[in-house]
Write a structure and sequence with these properties.
The chain is mainly alpha-helical. 73% of the residues lie in helices and 0% in strands. The chain contains ten helices and no strands. Keywords: DNA-binding, Nucleus, Signal.
Length: 268
């Protein structure tokens, strides 16, 4: 607007010397320049407003997304960190390992207390039985040792018979259960050995040693010297003879791998 006023003042001053047509042309040009400037200013304002609205919309959307997003708490973190519990497997029915000599004596002690009609207090009776056990003579303790050994022999026979009855699949499940328990800290749970599982064959050297032992070679020597003697004797065997043992070992190994694959398939 200031530029328009200035233009009219300049036109007024120049009206005495400039023709009227020229004055009108100058006024029209000045008015057009002012209109273009105003239009550009309006466009700039609209652009700034659109940019501001877009930023506001984006910020609002970001805030809504952040509010809807679940923030992990300590409870959820600890829940995710918990290890997956292994599936429980029912234990096999196996013979129970016999009680130790002390346990046999302690059971007898409790039976005597119960037979007397007295109230059994486990902690106190443990102390009493322990004191009584210490007072036993070696011969008296030997009675319980003998009972324990006899029970252990029965246990081994029953266990051997039971293992013969189990299938490869049952061995696989039981050993999986025991491995899972050992992983949690349980002790005295070794894996069961299947007596019917394929056994890895002897190498060529141990086949030679087996023949030497059957022939009675180095039988009179101590174990350490006997082992060294077998190694020295093997070193003197001709290569053609070693090749025979090697071929036997290769054939036996191939048979073992085939039998092992079939056995593992049954365990699945």
């Amino acid at each position: 607007m200031l530029s328009l006023s200035a233009s009219f003042r300049s036109l007024t001053l120049a009206s005495a010397t400039v023709p009227i047509q020229a004055v009108r042309a100058m006024a029209t040009k000045a008015a057009g320049s002012s209109t273009a400037t105003s239009t550009r200013a309006k466009k700039t304002d609209l652009t700034l407003k659109a940019t501001k609205d877009a930023k506001t919309t984006k910020t609002t959307k970001t805030i809504k997304e952040a509010s809807n997003k679940k923030i992990p708490t300590e409870a959820t973190k600890s829940k995710k960190a918990e290890p997956v519990k292994p599936k429980k497997i029912a234990p096999l029915e196996l013979p129970k390992r016999p009680s130790s000599p002390w346990t046999l004596f302690f059971k007898e002690h409790l039976d005597k207390v119960k037979a007397s009609g007295k109230t059994v207090v486990p902690v106190q009776e443990t102390v009493n039985a322990s004191a009584a056990w210490k007072q036993l003579t070696p011969d008296q303790k030997q009675v319980y040792e003998d009972r324990y050994r006899a029970n252990m022999e029965d246990f081994k026979r029953q266990m051997e018979q039971r293992l013969q009855e189990l299938t490869p699949a049952e061995f696989g499940l039981e050993n999986s259960r025991r491995r899972a328990l050992r992983a949690t800290g349980k002790k005295n749970l070794p894996s069961l050995k299947d007596p019917n599982a394929p056994k890895r064959p002897l190498s060529s050297f141990f086949r030679f040693v087996q023949e030497q032992r059957a022939a009675g070679e180095f039988a009179s020597l101590p174990v350490k010297e006997r082992t060294r003697s077998f190694a020295d004797a093997w070193a003197k065997v001709p290569e053609s003879e070693k090749a025979r043992y090697a071929e036997q070992a290769r054939n036996a190994l191939a048979e073992y791998k085939a039998a092992k694959a079939a056995y593992e398939a049954e365990r699945q």
